[in-house]
């Protein structure tokens, strides 16, 4: 949807047109759901938060100012804020690979399906990065997801997280530094464990 | 080695932003800094790929527009005509409660409030002591722990009977 078309939809939705509200909902639902899932790591919670964010957005549509930014950014402000509240209220469980497979999804894309060894290695590497990301402090984690998944500029991240541009930049840098330390520690641990296993085998 | 080592956070920032050329000279000669920066470049790519893969595999639920619409309808204010009926009802009630009694006059007010005009201070309760053969006395019940006082009751003189 173009920004002009979207603004027209928003005008109509403001006037109470449910058809326009539905079009807006359908246009943003997928992206909002995936972002909520990345931020929360839980399907049920992501679903609940997305629903809640849309209801809030439509109820408060009069507060949206197209001059200040895109509807997508405004919706993300609402969504991220709700995800943070949700996280505060409960400690979320991690989603295991089995759960993902149970939903009929595989975590690997299919472009290198002909090279299983390579694909498996790549999948393990990404999984390690994602698992390490779950241990990064929440403020930095949110900033990393907005930066590297959403591809947002620092000004947009700052608006969504309610901080200054410098703080947004700093959170991303801190997040990366934490992530690097976590991955280095894990690598060192796996090397130590591997050495111990080899020593046991020799002994 | 040329220049001071940048901090870890500087390198983390650098991997994501412009301005790398400012440190080019240092990086050319400093392999630890170069390695750290390369780590961050790799990490950034892997992080993007990991997040994309995770999002692609995310179990996104089916659209539930009906659920959103239901919640929106529940929270919607009453339509104008319904609001008018409610306001008219409230106005009528107010009319009945406040305007009608005053229109009917003070008699109704007195009936509805029999204690109107009565002093708030408690009046002493007066009892008549009728002991046989004794002079009638007025006994006052103490109020607020006040001492009981008995006053002799002297009957008024009887007027003389007219002579026939």
What does it look like?
The complex is a heterodimer of chains A (203) and B (164). By secondary structure, chain A is mainly alpha-helical. Chain A folds into 2 domains: 1-93, RNA polymerase sigma factor, region 2, helix turn helix motif (Rna Polymerase Sigma Factor, Chain: A); 110-203, Winged helix-like DNA-binding domain superfamily/Winged helix DNA-binding domain (Arc Repressor Mutant, subunit A), CATH 1.10.10.10. Chain A has helices at residues 3-14, 18-40, 43-59, 71-89, 97-102, 116-133, 138-148, 154-161, 165-202. The longest helix of chain A is centred in the C-terminal third of the chain and has 38 residues, at 165-202. Chain B has helices at residues 8-14, 24-29, 31-57, 65-75, 80-104, 106-112; strands at residues 126-129, 137-140, 150-152. With 164 residues, chain B is mainly alpha-helical. Chain B has a 3-stranded antiparallel beta sheet, with no helix packed on it.
SSE ordering of chain A:
HHHHHHHHH
CATH topology term of the largest domain in chain A: Arc Repressor Mutant, subunit A
Morphology call of chain B: elongated
Q: Number of helical runs of chain B?
A: 6
The helix/strand order of chain B is: HHHHHHEEE
- Beta-strand share of residues of chain A: under 5%
Quaternary: heterodimer
Average per-residue pLDDT of chain B, rounded, comes to: 70
Number of strands of chain B: 3
What structural category do the secondary elements of chain A indicate? Answer: mainly alpha
Distance between the termini of chain A: 66 Å
- How are the strands of the largest sheet of chain B arranged? 1-2-3
Distance between the termini of chain B: 152 Å
Number of helices of chain A: 9
Which segments of chain A are poorly predicted (pLDDT under 50) over 5 or more consecutive residues? 92-110
Main β-sheet of chain B, in a few words? 3 strands, antiparallel
Radius of gyration of chain B: 49 Å
Rounded mean pLDDT of chain A is 82
């Amino acid at each position: 949807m173009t920004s002009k078309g979207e603004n027209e939809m928003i005008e109509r939705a403001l006037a109470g047109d449910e058809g326009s509200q539905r079009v807006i909902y359908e246009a943003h639902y997928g992206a909002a759901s995936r972002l909520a899932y990345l931020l929360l790591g839980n399907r049920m919670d992501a679903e609940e938060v997305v629903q809640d964010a849309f209801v809030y957005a439509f109820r408060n549509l009069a507060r949206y100012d197209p001059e200040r930014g895109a509807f997508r950014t405004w919706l993300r402000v609402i969504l991220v804020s709700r995800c943070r509240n949700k996280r505060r209220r409960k400690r979320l469980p991690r989603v295991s690979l089995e759960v993902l497979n149970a939903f009929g999804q595989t975590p690997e894309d299919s472009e290198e399906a002909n090279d299983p060894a390579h694909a498996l290695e790549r999948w393990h590497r990404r999984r390690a990065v994602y698992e390490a990301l779950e241990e990064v402090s929440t403020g930095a984690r949110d900033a990393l997801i907005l930066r590297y998944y959403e591809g947002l500029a620092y000004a947009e991240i700052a608006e969504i997280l309610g901080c200054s541009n410098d703080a947004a930049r700093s959170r991303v840098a801190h997040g990366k530094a934490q992530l690097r330390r976590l991955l280095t520690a894990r690598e060192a641990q796996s090397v130590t464990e591997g050495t111990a296993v080899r020593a046991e085998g020799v002994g | 080695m040329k220049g001071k080592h940048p901090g870890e956070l500087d390198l983390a920032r650098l991997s994501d932003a412009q301005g790398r050329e400012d440190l080019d000279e240092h990086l050319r000669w400093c392999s630890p800094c170069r390695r750290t920066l390369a780590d961050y470049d790799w990490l950034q790519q892997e992080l993007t790929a990991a997040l994309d893969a995770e999002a692609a595999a995310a179990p996104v639920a089916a659209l539930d527009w009906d659920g959103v619409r239901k919640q929106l309808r529940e929270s919607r204010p009453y339509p104008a005509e319904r609001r008018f009926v409610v306001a008219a009802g409230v106005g009528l009630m107010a009319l009945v409660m406040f305007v009608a009694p005053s229109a009917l006059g003070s008699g109704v007010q007195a009936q509805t409030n029999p204690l109107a005009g009565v002093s708030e201070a408690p009046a002493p309760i007066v009892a008549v002591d009728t002991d046989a053969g004794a002079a009638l006395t007025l006994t006052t019940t103490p109020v607020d722990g006040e001492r009981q006082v008995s006053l002799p009751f002297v009957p008024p003189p009887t007027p003389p009977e007219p002579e026939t």
